[in-house]
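Design a sequence for this backbone.
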């Protein structure tokens, strides 16, 4: 008889960050991941991860709600269902549960990991095959201190770990943020690309002022300068400036992407498995973007190794992405819960080899960092 899903366990795992990570809406000292262990009747276990930023500071799902909603609502829908029909599992979750994209992403990841292990294929192979096996990865400078950020950037460059940097701004007045960014860009010169992520903190008038100054300072990409739902404003900014806009919180799935594209947005989309409800959903968004001539960027919600590996398997199936990726989540954490961390080198990261995600848990570390 073919395998069915037998048991779904969720764990809250708290890992400290290597330094405070300061964003416009919160400062993180710890990252909380929801780890999913999906056991199947053929004895195979699939791993998944659902992770967000700063409790409820970033979006409507918190780590605790992700766990609770999986345990109470989503897992019971999957128990007893055939293990290998990913499309049917996804349709079932979407039919009975609205929203909860991060929880759905964690479950789809676990189902894909198990199916890959079952068939002896990597997740990228299950998705049609990898076109890249080493992906570029930028680093986010967000210590909150200009001098520290500059030192950190030079260290990363010297280690050949990252050659592009994203600066988190929006917590300070516009002029102070612009000064901070311009000082970092001036220090790095042509050695590195510098982008900013405002995480929705500006109104449109502040954005016009800020982006003008950032463009003059040589910044190459402006991520989500204004609130997520202000699509018309984002399109106006994209039309107004030479420096491209990167839509992040504004674009969760293919429908958002289609709406922005149809209304004349140009620039790029940040793809995140967590926003799109999983790997299949994020690839649908990527294909809409490609059809519309919108650039791609492999985004993170600062997932640990499991969520990062899952994202890499999805990105690997795409053509080279215009703006590379930011899949550095595991590097921001002081420790890991997997036996073999991802291999970061040569300004990027290797796609882990399968089967499945190509990741295995370190049970001692998992037990140590799991919330009791
Ligand atoms: C975001 O909004 O892009 C990605 C990198 C980082 O530092 O924060 C995230 C979230
Ligand atoms: Mg962002």
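Sequence:
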């Amino acid at each position: 008889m073919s395998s069915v899903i037998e048991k779904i366990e969720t764990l809250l795992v708290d890992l400290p960050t290597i330094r405070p990570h300061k964003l416009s809406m919160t400062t993180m000292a710890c990252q909380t991941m929801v780890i999913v262990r999906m056991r199947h009747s053929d004895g195979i276990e699939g791993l998944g991860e659902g992770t967000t930023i700063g409790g409820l500071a970033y979006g409507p799902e918190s780590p605790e709600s992700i766990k609770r909603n999986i345990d109470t609502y989503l897992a019971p829908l999957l128990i007893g269902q055939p293990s290998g029909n990913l499309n049917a599992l996804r349709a079932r979750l979407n039919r009975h549960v609205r929203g909860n994209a991060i929880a759905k992403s964690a479950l789809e990841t676990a189902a894909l990991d198990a199916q890959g292990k079952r068939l002896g294929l990597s997740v990228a192979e299950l998705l049609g095959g990898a076109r890249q096996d080493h992906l570029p990865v930028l680093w986010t400078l967000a210590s909150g201190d200009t001098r520290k950020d500059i030192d950190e950037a030079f260290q990363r460059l010297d280690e050949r770990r990252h050659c592009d940097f994203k600066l988190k701004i929006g917590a300070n007045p516009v002029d102070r943020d612009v000064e901070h960014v311009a000082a970092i860009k001036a220090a790095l010169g042509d050695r590195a690309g510098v982008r900013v992520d405002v995480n929705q903190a500006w109104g449109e008038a502040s954005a016009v002022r800020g982006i003008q100054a950032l463009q003059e300072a040589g910044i190459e990409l402006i991520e989500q300068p204004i609130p997520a739902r202000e699509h018309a404003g984002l399109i106006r900014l994209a039309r107004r400036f030479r420096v491209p806009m990167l839509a992040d919180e504004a674009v969760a799935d293919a429908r958002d992407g289609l709406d922005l594209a149809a209304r004349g947005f140009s620039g790029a989309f940040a793809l995140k498995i967590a926003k799109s409800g999983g790997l299949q959903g994020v690839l649908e968004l990527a294909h809409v973007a490609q059809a519309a001539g919108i650039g791609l960027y492999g985004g993170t919600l600062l997932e640990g190794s499991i969520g990062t590996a899952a994202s890499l398997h999805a990105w690997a199936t795409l053509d080279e992405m215009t703006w590379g990726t930011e899949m550095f989540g595991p590097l921001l954490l002081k420790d890991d819960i997997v036996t073999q961390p991802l291999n970061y080198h040569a300004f990027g990261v290797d796609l882990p080899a399968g089967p499945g995600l190509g990741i295995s848990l370190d049970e001692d570390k998992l037990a140590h960092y799991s919330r009791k």
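The chain has a mean pLDDT of 98.
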